[in-house]
Every structure is written in C-alpha cells, then in structure tokens.
Specification:
The protein has about 325 residues and is mainly β. It is about 10% helix and about 45% strand. Strands 23-28-24-25-26-27 form a six-stranded antiparallel β-sheet. β8 and β9 form a beta hairpin.
Length: about 325
C-alpha cells in the first residue's frame, strides 16, 4: 500500500499526520497507534436541500473541522459535492455566499412548493378591481415594476397558474409584467349612444308597439298582417331608419354585428337551440325583451336566460 501525506488531524488531543489511500485516511499518533478513517472520493452532484435542524457548515467533511457558520433549521442550500466519511454522508453546499461541508443526516431534499404551469398565450383587455402591483414574474416575491391604480385597463398576452393562483402577463402604458388575476375583471367597453340615436332607437320600439296584436301573416308587411322580417322592416322604415330587405338573413347581412344589443337593434334567431341558421328576426326592446311577429301575432316576449328564445339567439345587428 502506498501512503501519501495529508492534512493534520487530532488523536488524543495531539496533532497527527494522516496519510491517505483511495479508500482510507490513516491517523498515527505519537504512540504509533493507528486509526483507520474510511473516506470516499467526493462525487459531483447538484440540487437543493433543506436543513432539518440547526446545522454547522464546516471547512472539511468532519465534525472536527473548523466551523464556517451555523445554518438555521429550514435553510435551503445548494449542493455541489458529496462524500462518505466513516459511514456519514457529507455534502458540500453553498448558502449566502459561503461554501462548506454539512452532514447529510440533517438534510432533506428540497421540493419547491411553487407549482408553475407553462404560460398560455391569450388576448383581451382587463380592468383592475383594486390597486395592483405589476411584477417581473408570476410571484409575490418577484420585484415590483409598478403599481396600477384601481380601474386601470390592461392588455393581457399570457396566463399561467402558480401554486393555485392564476397570473396574467399584461401591458399598461409602456410597462409589461405579471399581475394576479384575482384582482382583474374582463373589460367591457361601454358605448355612448348620442341623444339623437337614442331617440331614433326608442322610436323604432314606439312605432312597433303600435301594432301589438296584429296577426302573423306569412309574407305580410303591412298593418293588416306581418311576418317577422316584414314587421322589422316596416318599423324601421316608419321610424326613419330607411328600408330593410324583407328577409331575416338579408337583414343580418346589411346590419353591423354587435356583441350585445341596444334598444332598437335586431335580434336574429334560429329554429333550434344552439343552431346557426337564421330563421327569425325581432326588435330588441330592452330589459331582455323582444318585440316581434311570432306565433300568431305581434307581441313582446322574453329573451332572458331560461326563456324559450334565449338559447335560439344567433346574433345581434345594428344599423348604427
């Protein structure tokens, strides 16, 4: 066996000269007593670990080695090497700018509680429900970019879920960052209707209501009898909107599609719930009601959720 000189150690409180083989350190005291200390070669590793108790970080893999610092219980460290010395596994770790060896008996594998999903591309505008911090990443611990005021309108580009919380990547003014969706709501742009347009819209319903009870007549387009598109075309013309074609699908083609109706807009329906083929048209009268020639006469009916007509709505159209 070939022995090589190593660093000094203590045996019976006396400095010794250890020699090293591939598998052992040999400590020899002044009385020529020899102690064999088993030590494996350090193996390169990577990963994070958490201390399970207060733990001394030392210069070498030994309880006799000089202490560098004491790590608190729960400290997360980054490991770079591990080795076995006399049956104990030691880890070379880094924490807070310091590097040293700690006993593996007081470490456990660190599992981040942060569950991060892949960001999904989205689009849309949202409005803040309260004062809200925009951050560099999807975490409350991330650096703050700016604070958004309540009511700020932002444009979203991505979303992701982190530890059960959904975050949106948004842009506001010239700044881009992450905000918690808990304080956002979908932004709906409100359209201001001029007083003249509002009066004209109300006039459509006023004209149409004059013919309540007029019988439904296929192909009818006069006060003696109306079909659905004949009634809407007649009401629009009398109110001063101009001429509409006498066909529900053609009326859809000449109107501007809107996401939610205003008083006087046209509502287009299909024959069966969830269908897409337009077979009927009426006038939106406000308060979730439609004024139309349906059944056996001109009448008001509900388009509120749960009504007969609501699931048959295909779209809305406006002449504005």
């Amino acid at each position: 066996m070939t022995l090589s000189l190593g660093l000094g150690a203590l045996v019976n409180n006396q400095p010794q000269q250890p020699t090293q083989t591939n598998a052992t350190n040999v400590l020899q005291d002044s009385a020529n007593k020899i102690t064999m200390v088993s030590s494996s070669k350090a193996t390169k590793i990577s990963g994070k670990y958490k201390t399970t108790a207060a733990l001394n970080m030392r210069k070498g893999a030994s309880t006799s080695s000089t202490k560098i610092t004491t790590l608190k219980k729960g400290t997360v460290v980054t490991a770079t090497y591990k080795k076995k010395v006399s049956g104990t596994t030691w880890y070379k770790v880094k924490h807070g700018g310091k590097t040293g060896w700690v006993s593996g008996s007081y470490l456990k594998k660190y599992k981040s509680t942060t569950s991060t999903a892949k960001a999904t591309k989205i689009s849309g505008k949202y409005k803040t429900k309260s004062v809200l911090n925009m951050r560099k990443s999807a975490s409350l611990k991330s650096g703050k970019i700016t604070t958004l005021k309540k009511g700020a309108v932002v444009t979203a580009s991505y979303k992701k879920t982190v530890s059960g919380t959904t975050w949106y990547k948004v842009k506001h003014s010239s700044k881009t960052g992450w905000v918690s969706s808990s304080y956002l709501k979908k932004y709906k742009k409100t359209t201001t209707v001029s007083s003249s347009n509002l009066a004209l819209r109300n006039k459509v319903i006023s004209v149409g209501s004059q013919y309540l009870g007029v019988p439904y007549v296929w192909g009818g387009m006069s006060p003696s009898g109306f079909d659905c598109s004949g009634f809407t075309a007649y009401a629009y013309k009398k109110a001063g909107y101009g001429t509409l074609p006498h066909n529900s699908r053609s009326q859809r083609a000449v109107t501007k599609k809107v996401s939610s109706p205003e008083v006087g807009d046209l509502i287009f329906f299909t024959a069966t719930p969830g269908g897409s083929t337009i077979t009927h048209v009426g006038l939106y009268a406000g308060n979730n009601k439609v004024l139309h020639a349906a059944g056996d006469k001109v009448q008001y009916q509900s388009v509120a959720k749960g009504s007969y007509w609501e699931p048959r709505i295909v779209s809305y159209g406006s002449l504005d």
